[in-house]
Known about the structure:
Blueprint: E1 2-5, H1 12-19, E2 33-35, E3 38-40, H2 43-47, H3 52-59, E4 64-70, E5 90-95, H4 104-113, E6 120-122, H5 131-140
Parallel strand pairs: 1-3, 1-4, 4-5, 5-6
Antiparallel strand pairs: 2-3
Amino acid sequence: xxxxxxxxxxxxxxxxxxxxxxxxxxxxxxxxxxxxxxxxxxxxxxxxxxxxxxxxxxxxxxxxxxxxxxxxxxxxxxxxxxxxxxxxxxxxxxxxxxxxxxxxxxxxxxxxxxxxxxxxxxxxxxxxxxxxxxxxxxxxxxxx
Length: 144
Protein backbone atom coordinates (compact mmCIF):
# COMPACT_ATOMS: atom_id res chain seq x y z
CA UNK A 1 0.00 0.00 0.00
CA UNK A 2 1.18 3.53 -0.84
CA UNK A 3 0.15 6.70 1.00
CA UNK A 4 0.08 9.98 -0.96
CA UNK A 5 0.66 13.21 0.97
CA UNK A 6 0.97 16.86 -0.07
CA UNK A 7 -0.65 20.29 0.10
CA UNK A 8 -4.13 21.14 -1.16
CA UNK A 9 -4.24 21.18 -4.97
CA UNK A 10 -0.87 19.46 -5.47
CA UNK A 11 -2.39 16.73 -7.65
CA UNK A 12 -2.46 13.81 -5.21
CA UNK A 13 -5.76 12.31 -6.36
CA UNK A 14 -4.89 12.85 -10.03
CA UNK A 15 -1.57 11.09 -9.44
CA UNK A 16 -3.34 8.20 -7.70
CA UNK A 17 -5.79 7.92 -10.61
CA UNK A 18 -2.94 7.93 -13.14
CA UNK A 19 -1.03 5.24 -11.24
CA UNK A 20 -4.19 3.11 -11.05
CA UNK A 21 -5.01 3.82 -14.73
CA UNK A 22 -8.31 5.27 -13.62
CA UNK A 23 -9.79 7.89 -15.95
CA UNK A 24 -12.10 9.45 -13.38
CA UNK A 25 -11.95 13.19 -12.88
CA UNK A 26 -10.29 14.02 -9.57
CA UNK A 27 -12.48 15.59 -6.93
CA UNK A 28 -11.51 17.22 -3.65
CA UNK A 29 -10.50 14.58 -1.11
CA UNK A 30 -12.50 15.23 2.06
CA UNK A 31 -11.10 12.46 4.27
CA UNK A 32 -8.46 9.75 4.15
CA UNK A 33 -9.49 7.34 1.37
CA UNK A 34 -8.24 3.80 0.73
CA UNK A 35 -8.52 3.03 -3.00
CA UNK A 36 -6.79 0.53 -5.26
CA UNK A 37 -3.90 -0.23 -2.90
CA UNK A 38 -3.32 3.46 -2.21
CA UNK A 39 -4.16 5.88 0.56
CA UNK A 40 -5.23 9.34 -0.62
CA UNK A 41 -5.00 12.06 2.01
CA UNK A 42 -6.59 15.52 2.14
CA UNK A 43 -4.10 18.35 1.59
CA UNK A 44 -5.22 20.01 4.80
CA UNK A 45 -3.74 17.08 6.74
CA UNK A 46 -0.28 18.09 5.49
CA UNK A 47 -0.87 21.79 6.11
CA UNK A 48 -2.52 21.84 9.54
CA UNK A 49 -0.33 20.50 12.38
CA UNK A 50 -3.23 19.13 14.43
CA UNK A 51 -3.79 16.54 11.66
CA UNK A 52 -0.18 15.30 11.61
CA UNK A 53 -0.96 12.51 14.07
CA UNK A 54 -3.60 11.14 11.69
CA UNK A 55 -1.01 11.05 8.90
CA UNK A 56 1.56 9.32 11.11
CA UNK A 57 -0.90 6.64 12.24
CA UNK A 58 -2.20 6.08 8.70
CA UNK A 59 1.34 5.79 7.34
CA UNK A 60 1.86 2.67 9.45
CA UNK A 61 -0.52 0.91 7.05
CA UNK A 62 1.59 1.89 4.03
CA UNK A 63 4.80 0.43 2.69
CA UNK A 64 5.85 3.77 1.17
CA UNK A 65 4.81 7.41 1.43
CA UNK A 66 4.75 9.55 -1.72
CA UNK A 67 5.19 13.24 -0.97
CA UNK A 68 3.80 15.41 -3.76
CA UNK A 69 5.02 18.88 -4.77
CA UNK A 70 3.18 20.92 -7.41
CA UNK A 71 5.77 22.31 -9.86
CA UNK A 72 3.68 25.46 -10.40
CA UNK A 73 2.68 26.43 -6.85
CA UNK A 74 5.18 27.16 -4.10
CA UNK A 75 2.84 29.19 -1.90
CA UNK A 76 2.02 26.20 0.35
CA UNK A 77 5.35 24.56 1.13
CA UNK A 78 5.55 21.66 3.52
CA UNK A 79 7.41 22.35 6.77
CA UNK A 80 11.16 21.73 6.94
CA UNK A 81 11.87 18.09 7.82
CA UNK A 82 8.20 17.10 7.37
CA UNK A 83 9.12 13.74 5.81
CA UNK A 84 10.96 12.73 8.98
CA UNK A 85 7.73 12.14 10.90
CA UNK A 86 6.75 9.16 8.77
CA UNK A 87 7.64 5.63 9.92
CA UNK A 88 8.00 4.53 6.29
CA UNK A 89 10.32 5.48 3.39
CA UNK A 90 9.30 8.68 1.60
CA UNK A 91 9.59 9.23 -2.16
CA UNK A 92 9.21 12.66 -3.78
CA UNK A 93 6.99 13.26 -6.79
CA UNK A 94 6.81 16.55 -8.68
CA UNK A 95 3.46 17.04 -10.40
CA UNK A 96 2.01 19.24 -13.15
CA UNK A 97 5.24 19.33 -15.15
CA UNK A 98 3.30 19.97 -18.37
CA UNK A 99 1.82 23.27 -17.18
CA UNK A 100 3.35 26.57 -18.27
CA UNK A 101 5.40 28.13 -15.49
CA UNK A 102 6.39 24.82 -13.92
CA UNK A 103 9.78 24.91 -12.20
CA UNK A 104 11.26 21.47 -11.56
CA UNK A 105 14.32 22.87 -9.78
CA UNK A 106 12.22 24.86 -7.29
CA UNK A 107 9.98 21.84 -6.70
CA UNK A 108 13.01 19.63 -6.01
CA UNK A 109 14.25 22.22 -3.53
CA UNK A 110 10.88 22.19 -1.72
CA UNK A 111 11.02 18.40 -1.43
CA UNK A 112 14.60 18.53 -0.21
CA UNK A 113 13.69 21.11 2.48
CA UNK A 114 10.79 18.88 3.55
CA UNK A 115 13.34 16.12 4.17
CA UNK A 116 12.64 13.97 1.09
CA UNK A 117 15.75 12.35 -0.32
CA UNK A 118 16.35 11.66 -4.03
CA UNK A 119 15.34 10.25 -6.40
CA UNK A 120 12.49 12.59 -7.31
CA UNK A 121 10.02 11.72 -10.04
CA UNK A 122 8.59 14.41 -12.33
CA UNK A 123 5.15 13.53 -13.69
CA UNK A 124 2.05 14.77 -15.42
CA UNK A 125 -1.12 12.90 -14.52
CA UNK A 126 -2.80 14.51 -17.54
CA UNK A 127 -0.32 13.62 -20.29
CA UNK A 128 1.10 10.54 -18.55
CA UNK A 129 4.68 11.84 -18.68
CA UNK A 130 6.84 10.16 -16.04
CA UNK A 131 4.08 7.82 -14.82
CA UNK A 132 5.73 4.68 -16.28
CA UNK A 133 9.05 5.48 -14.57
CA UNK A 134 7.32 6.03 -11.23
CA UNK A 135 5.26 2.85 -11.65
CA UNK A 136 8.43 0.84 -12.37
CA UNK A 137 10.11 2.30 -9.28
CA UNK A 138 7.09 1.36 -7.14
CA UNK A 139 6.98 -2.17 -8.60
CA UNK A 140 10.70 -2.68 -7.90
CA UNK A 141 9.98 -1.89 -4.25
CA UNK A 142 6.99 -4.22 -4.10
CA UNK A 143 4.56 -1.34 -3.63
CA UNK A 144 2.45 -1.85 -6.75
